[in-house]
Amino acid sequence: MLSQSFNPKYFSKLNWNENKKYGATIMCKKNVYWPKFKSYQLKESINDNTVVVLPVGSCEQHGFHLPLETDATLVYRIAEEAALRAEKQIYILPPIWAGYSPHHMDFCGSITLGRETFHHLLFDICKSLMHHGIKHILLLNGHGGNEAILKTVVDDLGTKSSIYPILITYFNYFAKQIKERQRSTEGGMGHAGELETSLQLFLSPDFVDKDKLEGEIIPGNKYFKPGMFINNKIYQYRPFSSYSPIGVLGEPQAALKETGEELFNLIVDGLAKLFDDIADGIVQQLQVL
Ligand SMILES: [Zn+2]
């Protein structure tokens, strides 16, 4: 069951206090959408515990059965629902819809930002948030190819300010729980595989071409095996087309709407708790022994 989604029609007529006053009659339990607020409302609301979540996706091929926007829409829907379920007031920004995807450019429609462009985009958004007094920023990533650059953004913000943003990639954060529910053989989650297809079947089934569920698991070698949740001993850049001519790594045939619903709720509830813990300062506390 998803929370009632935000209806801007109601918020556009009411100020923040009226929203609270008439909370029982409006369409959702709270407004989490940063750009929907008025400037003065944010100024009144921001304090040392305020948490802002920036979902980061990509626009890249996902085989014959999933749309290019898969990573961006999944990470945004996850961020949105987690913010709605959190006990604290959490703000979410619109998703970054294009990421770092040079390895998918052999497939039509894929769009990639350059490394510097992507870094500057995220760095500047975070600096703007800090300028307005935000001390807790979470970069919520939904695309494996973004990770290396996102770490450099977090490192640069940390070394150039006193704010230490947090970075997680949702499917790595919940890797154990995801693997426990895996129906496919090892390597079956992959890119456009069982995980992403299951989530899409739950969240946006109309955008899944169910008669085109095709994929493959690449055995690789003792040093390198392409896939999700695999700790390779070496790193090597390889275009995706060199693994798979159809752009799928995994077994989307094993995907189920029920798996997607279970994983979505598990991920969202876990993230809602994380958001609240960040707001309470629990994640930032380090015990010095
Ligand atoms: Zn994806």
Structural summary, described in words:
The structure is a single chain. The model is unreliable at 5-27 (pLDDT under 50). The protein has 289 residues and is an alpha/beta fold. The chain has a four-stranded parallel β-sheet, with helices on both faces. It is 37% helix and 7% strand. The protein has one domain (29-38, 45-279): 3-Layer(aba) Sandwich (Rossmann fold). Bound molecules: zinc ion. Zinc ion binds next to helix 4. Zinc ion binds at residues 62, 70-71, 191, 196.
Which helices and strands, and how do they pair?
Elements lengths: L7 H4 L4 H6 L17 H7 L5 E6 L13 H16 L4 E3 L22 H17 L4 E6 L5 H14 L5 E4 H4 L1 H6 L13 H10 L53 H23 L10
Parallel strand pairs: 1-2, 1-3, 3-4
Helix pairs in contact: 4-9, 4-10, 5-6, 9-10
CATH homologous superfamily label: Creatininase
Low-confidence stretches: 5-27
Based on secondary structure, the structural category is alpha/beta
Strand numbers in spatial order across the main sheet: 2-1-3-4
CATH second-level architecture: 3-Layer(aba) Sandwich
Bound molecules: zinc ion
The pLDDT mean sits at 90
Shape: globular
CATH topology (level 3) name: Rossmann fold
Strand content: 5-15%
Distance between the termini: 44 Å
**Number of spatially distinct domains:** 1
Tally of strands: 4
CATH class: Alpha Beta
- Provide a count of the helices: 10
Instruction: Tell me the Rg in angstroms.
Output: 20 Å
**Percent helix:** 25-40%
Q: How would you sum up the major sheet?
A: 4 strands, parallel
Query: What string gives the helices and strands in order?
Result: HHHEHEHEHEHHHH
